[in-house]
Amino acid sequence: MASDAITVPVGQTEARPWVDELHQWLTTVDHKRLGILYIVSSLLFLAVGGVEALIIRIQLMHSHNNFVSPEVFNQMFTMHGTTMIFFVAMPVLFGFANYLVPLMIGARDMAFPRLNAFSFWLSFLGGLLLYFSFVGGSGLYGAGSAPDVGWWSYAPLGARAFSPGHSSDYWTLALLVSGFGSIGTAINIIATILCLRCPGMKLSRMPLLVWMNLVMAGMVLLAITPLSAAQIMLLIDRYLGGHFFDTQAGGSAVLWMHFFWIFGHPEVYILIIPCFAFMSEIIPVFSRKPIFGYPVMVAATVCIAFVSMSVWAHHMFTIGMNSYANSFFTITTMVVGIPTGIKIFNWIGTMWGGRIQFKTAMLFSIGFLFQFLIAGLTGIMLAASPFDWQLSLSYFVVAHFHYVIVGGILFALFGAFYYWYPKMTGRMLSESLGKWHFWLFLIGFHMTFDVMHIPGILGMPRRIYTYEPGRGWDTLNLIVSIGAFIQAIAILVFLANLIISYFKGVRAGNDPWDAWTLEWSMSSPPPAYNFATVPTVESRRPLWDLKHPEDPDSRYE
Amino acid sequence: MSAVTGITPTSFPNPATEWHLPSRGKVAMAGLIIAESAIFTIFVVAYLFYIGKSTTGPTPQEVLETPIFYTICLLSSSLTIHLAAKALERDYRRLFLALLLLTIALGGLFLFGTAQEWHRLIYQRGLTISTNLFGTTYYSLVGLHAFHVTAGLIMLSLAAIFGFIGRVGVDQSGRVAVLSMYWHFVDAVWVVVFTVVYVLGR
Amino acid sequence: MWVLAQAIALLFWSSVAVWASETTSASRHGTNIFAPASTPAKSITNLSVFVLVTTGIIFVVVFALIFYSVFKFRARAKDAGREPAQVYGSTQIELAWTIIPILIVVVLFLATARVIHAIQDAPEPAGAVDVTVIGHQYWWEFRYPKLGIVTANELHIPVSDPGHPTPTFLQLLSADTDHSFWVPELAGKTDLIPNHPNRMWMDPQRTGVFLGQCAQYCGIQHAKMLLRVSVDGPEDFAAWVRAQQKPAVEDAGAIAGRRVFEGNACMNCHRVDGTSADGHFGPDLTHLMSRATIAAGAAENTHDNLRLWIQNPSAIKPGSLMPAMKLSDADLDAVVSYMETLN
């Protein structure tokens, strides 16, 4: 890739042979290239997971539909969930973390570049392994079969007795392998942030994105590992005759649920906290003000990390825990909403009194604020466990978590794409295509996920391949499905934007947004070595200090 | 705009002498230890939860024998590796090697003891991983620990080989310190496993 | 502008919700959680209204703040080149917007905890009906231990007069994987988990048929593990109990079919009380014809469906654990006639 660096030109005079280029990419240990590899591979899996979602939505368009068989449908929702969480959301967030963290702290690369590469390839291999199940799973009729036990693989459904063949094993092994990759990346992020900051960058001067990735990485260490442990236990049950989750031998199906959700709940915070990070970088720049309440934003994030480890059984309110346990998890779940909700106020406080520019990245950020608010409030509804006894396992929950993941995480990610694509490629994404992307996706999103709450209220459970007519669910499901297709079109617009702008986009220059953190101090894309000389920083916004020497931030911190 | 140099303040610490950050090896190993602790915690929780819940088969009281000697071996190996690391810091290479070899021997003895116990349990007492809940949780927990001991022994042996060919000196003492952190972790886990299996579980 | 559009959309969808909740008839009830007919469901609805109002107020306030700030503080042409005042935070404001949510959470929690205890720790009164529910892949087994009744898929319980309550207490067990008993208008759902007995109760205050289905993914035919709860008046319930307690009807005209039933593997799975068929793997068929549906609600209980089901279960419920018996047409017709005598 040619770069626009002024200090040390690294332009190519002739194109490298493609084999060479491919080899460079396959053997790279550069955090920027690995970041891009993570992001591109997650986009591939996004497309696949999206097709799975569309198959689900076509089947559910009306009652007693026959688009796919129950076997296929059950594989679709299992694969859709597993793919989106483990092979789209986690990798894309690791990709952005990989790309941005060393740049924002003034470092040359991550602490362990080879571990970084190893972790990426483990994660990617895990994805390929999961999808190989379509060919190799020894399904019911001898053909391949993807796993069909739901993305939680509840015991004893995941046991040999109820899931013969190997499809479940592909699920288990794929996640175990990519889980180790995630742990490697998390260790790398922590070591990088704690050990490689440039002089002057005390912890209290790090950009919020760096803080939040630090917290996220710490949570990965404590949350992914229980899932790995549970999966090792499942493998022991399936292959060595173990009885961890064998209810016939006195084992406990509930124990699997506890282990899974001790992973599962912190996992969703692992996914959302980096998105808070994006918002905390983008909203200030497009409001032209610093983030409102930096110390509390840090404290609230750390608080969320701790409290989120104590709420897991709100996914288990219906399994028959006693009233004290249900009350405990109700209060902890409501409490974790407080530091989370406060952040929304801090972002509003950032916009307040500012001069808001409605670039595409900011449009997605405002969408995030609105949708994350709603998602948080439906979460409070679900936290009230008696209310949850009705809403759990229904389409209300499906609507809630998609509101967070699509309305929150994906919107924040789109914002991050529009904001940092210029830095990564040296070209701006098209603003007009971006606005088409935004409005189409917004309409499709709300059409699908606002309406989806209603079938849940009307008694529609989740994970059903078809449903009875006369329950009032038909029209609603049709609207939901149409919205899904609108979102698909919007994603196509986005992918087109990514590709077209790479070749035809306006050249970006170092600092197209007039921003304040270190990554904007260098060329777009940055040179391979990042910083020609190691920077020294005085404040949280080193470039603000440079651009406004008469009124630097360092005076106020 | 090229690299940022910022405004040079009058009171800013001189980067060369006053900007100290922790060593990345130690931080990374601490991270790994935290992650591994979580894995072990889950296996310990399963063990504790299933105490007394087996529906058949031999019980811990009937078949377990407390491995005092091998525990002493493993725990003393923590002392020996600590002393080895200290010796290396002062460039006493031969003392370092001797203590390292002693650590490996003690760790190897511990593994031998585990193997011996498992052999007795399987062939004389009929307890396997699939016999009952006790068998499943016992072999998984002790086995997971033994796996980590084995991985540690491999790393220690590599260090010993490098030591023998003269490649380990005072400059490598940081790396040896990181390795010894791992070894201490493995021993600490054994203290927990021992307590849970041989003390609480009976 | 678009933010306003969102507000209008929200109003629209909530009215859709209200409309949807009206689309149920009186005697055959729907599955709307906001149309409760029993005390647990009513307590939940009351709590949920409180929660909805609280979260609704929060939404309106915060949405207004977002809307206002986006509108009022947008960049205008005259601002070009100047930065606004760089405000870093405000301790008082941040304290305020921390304390208020804490208070809201305390209130919500107290309201919730009361309902949790009221529902979960309710004592069982003397007049209660006891039912043991056993979940199977993909059907429901219902046993009334004190009444000596075993049936499947369609539950009959008495209506409960709030003055002299006769609730039904369910014990929930599972024979294989996890299931969940959900009849939205009668109670919140509770899971059926092997090796983990659960308990729930309901006291329906209206007669009629209430619908529901399994809510915990249990395998390939999770979608067709439906529930029908018939809430009967006191006389109807007593009559139903008496009929269910009798052994199977012996109809001399159906002897041929009975021979087919007993000679093939049917009795390995099914029980017909009063005959030698005593299988427990499949539903009890003693009073099959007292049920409105077969295959856990997957099909109406008609002659044609019954015939199709016995001939080839996968035609109605692919993946069901009942094997196709590969009977000849003559045998098939005979056994269907026999089934149709089991009132």
The residue-averaged pLDDT of chain A reads 95
What is the gyration radius of chain C calculated from CA atoms?
27 Å
Strand content of chain C: 15-25%
Which class of chain A in CATH terms?
A: Mainly Alpha
Q: With helices defined by DSSP (H or I, 4 residues minimum), what is the helix count of chain A? A: 16
Q: Which strand order do you get reading across the main beta sheet of chain C?
A: 3-2-1-5-8
The H/E string of chain C reads HHHEEEEEEEEEEHHHEEHHH
CATH topology name of chain A: Cytochrome C Oxidase, Chain A
Overall CATH architecture of the largest domain in chain C:
Sandwich
Total of helices of chain C: 9
The overall pLDDT average of chain C reads 92
Features:
heterotrimer, A: 557 residues, mainly alpha, Cytochrome C Oxidase, Chain A, 16 helices, 65% helix, 0% strand, globular, disordered N terminus, C: 343 residues, alpha+beta, Immunoglobulin-like, 2 domains, five-stranded mixed sheet, 39% helix
What report would you give on this structure?
The complex is a heterotrimer of chains A (557), B (202) and C (343). Chain A has 557 residues and is mainly alpha-helical. Helix content of chain A is 65%, strand content 0%. In chain A, helix 7 (253-287) packs parallel to helix 9 (323-351) and helix 12 packs antiparallel against helix 13 (431-451). Chain B contains 7 helices and no strands. With 343 residues, chain C is of the alpha+beta class. In chain C, 39% of the residues lie in helices and 17% in strands. Chain C has helices spanning 2-21, 39-72, 91-120, 234-245, 255-263, 266-269, 303-311, 313-316, 329-339, and strands at residues 129-136, 139-144, 149-152, 154-158, 168-174, 179-182, 190-192, 198-202, 208-214, 226-232, 293-294, 299-300. In chain C, the strands form 3 sheets. A 5-stranded mixed beta sheet of chain C has the order 3-2-1-5-8. Chain C starts with a helix and ends with a helix. Chains in contact: A-B, A-C. At the A-C interface, helix 3, helix 7, helix 8, helix 9 and helix 10 of A face helix 1, helix 2, helix 3 and strand 9 of C.
Task: Summarize this structure briefly.
The complex is a heterotrimer of chains A (557), B (202) and C (343). Chain B is mostly helical.
Sequence-ordered SSE layout with sheet pairings:
The complex is a heterotrimer of chains A (557), B (202) and C (343).
Chain A: H1 18-27, H2 31-59, H3 70-104, H4 113-136, H5 167-195, H6 208-239, H7 253-287, H8 294-307, H9 323-351, H10 360-383, H11 385-391, H12 395-425, H13 431-451, H14 453-457, H15 474-504, H16 542-547
Helix pairs in contact in A: 2-3, 2-4, 2-15, 3-4, 3-5, 3-7, 4-5, 5-6, 6-7, 6-8, 7-9, 7-10, 7-12, 8-9, 9-10, 10-12, 10-13, 12-13, 13-15
Chain B: H1 15-18, H2 24-49, H3 60-63, H4 68-89, H5 93-123, H6 133-164, H7 173-200
Helix pairs in contact in B: 2-6, 2-7, 4-5, 4-7, 5-6, 6-7
Chain C: H1 2-21, H2 39-72, H3 91-120, E1 129-136, E2 139-144, E3 149-152, E4 154-158, E5 168-174, E6 179-182, E7 190-192, E8 198-202, E9 208-214, E10 226-232, H4 234-245, H5 255-263, H6 266-269, E11 293-294, E12 299-300, H7 303-311, H8 313-316, H9 329-339
Helix pairs in contact in C: 2-3, 5-9
